[in-house]
Amino acid sequence: MDHKEIIQSTGKYVAHEFCSEGSGHDWFHIDRVRKMAVRIGIQEKCDLFVTEMAALLHDLDDWKITDSESTALSKTETWLNSLNVETAIAAKIIRVIDEVSYKGANISTPVSSVESAVVQDADRLDAIGAIGIARTFSYGGYKNRLIYDPEVPVDLHDDFRSYKKSAAPTINHFYEKLLLLKDRMNTQAAQSIAEGRHQFMVDYLSQFFDEWEAKR
Ligand code: NI
Hints:
Elements: H1 3-17, H2 27-43, H3 48-57, H4 63-66, H5 74-82, H6 87-98, H7 114-125, H8 129-142, H9 160-165, H10 170-176, H11 188-212
Bound molecules: nickel (II) ion.
């Protein structure tokens, strides 16, 4: 198989794996991240095969949906092996995937390649703006969380374990993650896209709290 066929076949495989995903990590999330990663990846002169493959596979073994403590990328590795992707390239793809995830407000997530930088940016862009808001409430519902509870303070997690275990209302997640992402973009291109999406969330929250207090 050539690279184009490998990407096509990976897209089909992932679409199938994510066809009944209700946590906001559905196939359309993957597809949006892939499109954004390719868009930014062209500007950043990335290896587009590694970029697109990592974007397609980035949530396959994700802790948020597999509920596993393990960081093993078994499904991803198995899939790459089955396509006979060259070992060095497969290792690069897996490294990118490993570096994508957000782990909490006070935990840094360094990237070791431009491809990691771009896929991380693309995934984070999908967590903010209009789509980010929709996905955040969808994930909160999936976890049976309240929309908002004024009694529960925001917690800027210092360790990944407490971030993972958080059961706080969904609005808190804006302050623990979404509103912080704008300043955590790696590339210039992602930074400028993030500005508009960030402002949209700020406006949304202001309307939300006004409605909460019956002011608007
Ligand atoms: Ni993702």
